[in-house]
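Researcher: I'd like a structural prediction for the single chain below. Treat it as a standalone chain; there are no partners to consider.
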Amino acid sequence: MKLRVGPVIKVAFTYVGTIVGAGFASGQEILQFYTRYGWMAELTIAFSSILFVWLGIKLMLIAYDVRAASYEDLNRHLFGERIGNWISLFTLIVLFGITSVMLAGSGSVFSEHLHLSYQTGLLVTLFASYFVIVRGMDAIMTVNSVVVPIMVMFTILLLAGTLGGPGRDAWTRLHTDDPIAKIWIAPLLYTSFNLSTAQAVLVPVGAAIRSRKVLILGGLIGGAMIGALLLAVHIALAAQMPGITQFEIPMAHLIRPFGRVLQYVYLLVIYGEIFTTYIANVYGIVLQLQQRTRLPRQALVVVILALSYLCGQFGFKTLLSTLYPIFGFISLSWLAMLVWRRSSAAVR
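Model: Treating it as a single chain, here is the predicted structure.
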């Protein structure tokens, strides 16, 4: 049977869009987990890229193999019935927390950069999300197929500008006094956190795409794209070290020389990454709750959106600083189980 390119690209872009969230698009994640560690960042990025390709494919193939209805089925497969239920409950809570963080982030974009009210940002995101989520996984994959290429184009633009400037080889000369253990735990934390939250979408993708070849190629292309984006942004950030560390959104500073119009367009890219992460998490939560409660999907979507709106009132920074560090370390155990667990689909 001839393999169609379209589904492969959709899987790849959905994978990238799920991983490349607001923290990535702002440049802050790459700065904190990679660039700050100097020239060794190239090695840790390569390590993360291998993990994203290998474990992203493995995650989707396990979902394909066990015909997982949601990430709860995956966690039961990884940890067993009892522990898997607790892991899924914890994942539900954290995913909801991250969902609230993303919604709060959309409000911050509207209030800090577009000079509109915080509540306007929340409500616009809520209504747009509802119309995408109720249309299912295909709509979510379509949104990612629009946002991700724009993000890639901006990254290429940044890289081209950096390689043509005076700091083009700074990424090969940066040094750090941080211990080796700290340098190498950073990519593990980054990968485990992102993959464990990405299961909310990658599991339904693995179950919905009934072709192992599509999942393998989509995971391969998506994981490789994530690694390439990490390296490109790292090179651009390294050229501005150490001064770039003072900015909350380093990428916005890097875009500034290209003119005000592109600054605003890139702001839309950041919002797009927030939006794709938000709808992905809500969709994953709804699937799990639907599996447990048998309530109609649309009703669950409305409930989750309303609850995230209430939590979003606490603000972006408060939610981010509280939830992310906790889940980062817990995710390491989930990553270890994913590495250890074998799937018949993965080895056939």
